[in-house]
């Protein structure tokens, strides 16, 4: 019902935009350098070969390795420790207004000549919160009782996620501001797309690797089956 309702809203609003919104007929005087797919990719390769852009790509592709495991695995491990899925989903609700307000607040600090300063300042705090997330997972079975988890545990989880969101958005807004600042206005769309794609990839590949490594790096013990290990999925099933 939820998806059906918002699907209907989406169809109605986009249809109204298609019929009621008129394109601006004024011609833009600036000449576009890119005219087709081939020219666009040639331009992308010429941009990425620039030493400064290459250094930036290496930086942004590796900058999120340190907290990829905490970001990708914490929620799954809390579920594994018995935190109800619906409770964990409800904890995301208080984050929505925070996610709306944070970019507005952080943009004041990234509007200057050095937007990446905010990125650098937020990184150590995000790394420390990764350790705190590990403690949250370790703490979960300690406080669990027959009725579930105490209210104070959920309060600590919400506070931890809120602090985490501040660091996430500080880094995200800073990178976006930097990409907008250094992109050549004449080919701004192409330039921004390249840098934002690299930024997205820099966040996605470490999370994927972290999820892939969870199983082989998890230490498991078999209860009541001496001489057997649970190192692999097949052995655990046996």
From TrEMBL:
Entry keyword annotation includes Transmembrane: yes
Membrane spanning stretches: 6-22, 43-67, 87-111, 123-140, 152-175
This protein's UniProt keywords: Membrane, Transmembrane, Transmembrane helix
Annotated Gene Ontology cellular component terms: membrane
Keyword presence, Nucleotide-binding: no
Origin superkingdom: Eukaryota
GO biological process: acetyl-CoA transmembrane transport
Annotated membrane topology: Multi-pass membrane protein
Location(s) in or outside the cell: Membrane
SUPFAM superfamilies: MFS general substrate transporter (SSF103473)
A single MF term (Gene Ontology): acetyl-CoA transmembrane transporter activity
PANTHER family per UniProt: ACETYL-COENZYME A TRANSPORTER 1, SOLUTE CARRIER FAMILY 33 ACETYL-COA TRANSPORTER -RELATED
UniProt protein name: ACATN protein
Species assigned in the record: Rhagologus leucostigma
